Amino acid sequence: MILGICLLSLTYFQHGLDKETLVLFVAKERPILSEEELEDIEGLAKEMSIQFIIHNSADGIPTGVTTLPSLYFQNRKGRSKYYGRYSNIPRLKNFIRTSKLAHQKNEAHEKKHLFVWKEGRADVSAPLKLTELTGSVPPDFDQAAFEEMAKKALADGMQFFKLEDTHLTTKNTRSFYFNIYPYLSESNELSLSTEVFSQYNCVKPVFTQDIPIAQSKWAEKEVAFKQAGKFVEEEILRQIKYSEAGDAFQPVSNKVKEISWEGMGLGDALDMDEQVERKVVKEFEFARSWKVEQRENKEEPIIIYHFLSPVDNYAGEVKELAGVMELSKNGSMEGATGKFVVDIGDVTMGSDDFDKEVHYKMLNRKSFPEASFEFVRVNGVKDELKLGVSQKMEVEGVFTMMGIPIPIVVDTEIEPFMAKNDVPKLQVNCTFQLPLFEKFNVEGPDGPSPAKDVLQFYMQFNLEVN
């Protein structure tokens, strides 16, 4: 049972409410985005109560903007670049929600044996995946030597892309991945086919065809790979200029005037204060049993997750959470117990293609439809929970996904508050990391380890009396 006596109301200033801005950089003479896409982005900003600015490159662009169009979300916590197709509004919404809680870092990471095109401020990479030779494979065939020859011959066929032994890629690096499939017939005829993928979708290729893109006699295999290099480069350049899927862009010329974010009125020091009314309660006794409050706005996520930098642009969210928590007799988290459950079907990365891949190929939703966390110990608790007082603690427990239980520690902050009509609630903020590959053998996106093997989670939800 909960007893409370409200003595007075106190009005105070709450810092940290975000002045949120969405900035789109475009070239007026070649905006690339359609009017419909611009209207959709503007509509999303209006829906999410975000200031929307379209900035013409002719007026100058900050140094870090390397391609057009480019879209950034900014609040007082920082700034993140959107990494996705502009027509994919659900993914854009997911990006904004994720950035509100945790902004991306722009750390560079090194990749080896990469095809790279540098134009103006932009750099474009084309990572290669060469599959093993199939068909009538010669008995003395050396796959390693074959790959070395193939890369050099592909580079010889390209005019703009150069093969680099190492290359530092960042969030600004635009990429098209291509696969080459070599086949050797019984008549010693080498045939090469290809698939080209956008960096925004590693599942569905932006180019593929049934007939080979290059052929030659086995003794002249360098000729076939040189032809393939020319073909692939032309296809990537065509995608950059004319893509209907949403991959077109324009490199920013070195002649474009450089300006600062501060010069645009968008410096990092953004402040916004808002008056918030809270209740001050003198007497209060906590209930022991609590449950996750179901939000009125079902579109707002409870959980945000992303891979570690530099691949933290791969992010997602969960909108539903179920669970209960039992406090100890004295209203303390010390000795508390609880269990929380997520439906795997509610996990989304803002794209149907990604979601299907995540649900069924990565997380095996059909066999394991839920993931859960059950905590067994709480460390760092100093006092009983008190209204208006935030307490930080470490919650130890067992996280179970795909039928595999692993121990994790969740950094948690809990603040009791009095909601409307004197209804008590607990605001909970949590963060933890999940070793995706090490424990669950789930491979992340293209990138360096351990960044692509670990997921970072952020959670924010309320508990109400059960």
Let me know the CATH homologous superfamily of the largest domain. Answer: Lipid/polyisoprenoid-binding, YceI-like
List low-pLDDT spans: 1-18, 269-282
Rg (C-alpha, Å): 26 Å
Write the CATH fold name of the largest domain.
Lipocalin
Distance between the first and last residues' Cα: 11 Å
Provide structural commentary.
It is a single chain. The chain is an alpha+beta fold and 466 residues long. It has helices at 35-47, 89-101, 143-156, 221-242, 352-362, 436-440; strands at 4-14, 21-26, 51-56, 61-62, 67-68, 70-75, 78-81, 109-119, 122-126, 128-130, 134-135, 162-169, 174-184, 189-198, 207-208, 214-217, 250-251, 258-259, 274-284, 289-292, 303-307, 315-318, 322-326, 337-343, 347-348, 370-379, 391-401, 404-418, 424-435, 454-465. It folds into 3 domains: 13-106 and 255-264, Glutaredoxin (3-Layer(aba) Sandwich); 109-242, no CATH class; 285-465, Beta Barrel (Lipocalin), CATH 2.40.128. The chain contains 6 helices and 30 strands. A hairpin with a 5-residue loop joins strand 28 and strand 29. The model is unreliable at 1-18 and 269-282 (pLDDT under 50).
The gist of it:
The chain is α+β, with helices and mostly antiparallel strands.
Which features characterize this protein?
6 helices; nine-stranded mixed beta sheet; Glutaredoxin; 466 residues; alpha+beta; 30 strands; disordered N terminus
